[in-house]
Design goal:
The chain is built from 4 helices and 2 strands, in the order αβααβα. The chain has 74 residues and is mostly helical.
C-alpha cells in the first residue's frame, strides 16, 4: 500500500493531483500515519493553495459549472 508521502511526491513532481490520488489520500488519512506523512500532506496543501499543484477535481468542477452557466435556458 502506498504512503501519503509517496502520493504527495508524485503530485509535486507532476504538478497535478488526480481525482484518483485525492481519493487515495482520503483513504490513507483515515488510517494511522507517520509524522513524515502528515508533513508531506501539509506541503501538498501549500503547493495546491499557491498554484504549484493543480487539482483535477477543481478543474472538473469548474468545467461543470461553466457548462451549466453557458447552457441556454428555454
Amino acid at each position: 500500500m502506498a504512503r501519503i508521502r509517496d502520493v504527495v511526491q508524485n503530485a509535486l513532481l507532476t504538478g497535478y493531483l488526480t481525482v484518483e490520488a485525492e481519493n487515495q489520500l482520503r483513504q490513507l488519512l483515515a488510517t494511522q500515519y507517520e509524522l513524515e506523512d502528515f508533513n508531506a500532506f501539509m506541503t501538498l496543501q501549500q503547493a495546491a493553495m499557491s498554484g504549484q499543484v493543480k487539482q483535477e477535481a477543481r478543474e472538473l468542477s469548474h468545467r461543470s459549472f461553466d457548462e451549466v452557466s453557458t447552457t441556454p435556458r428555454v
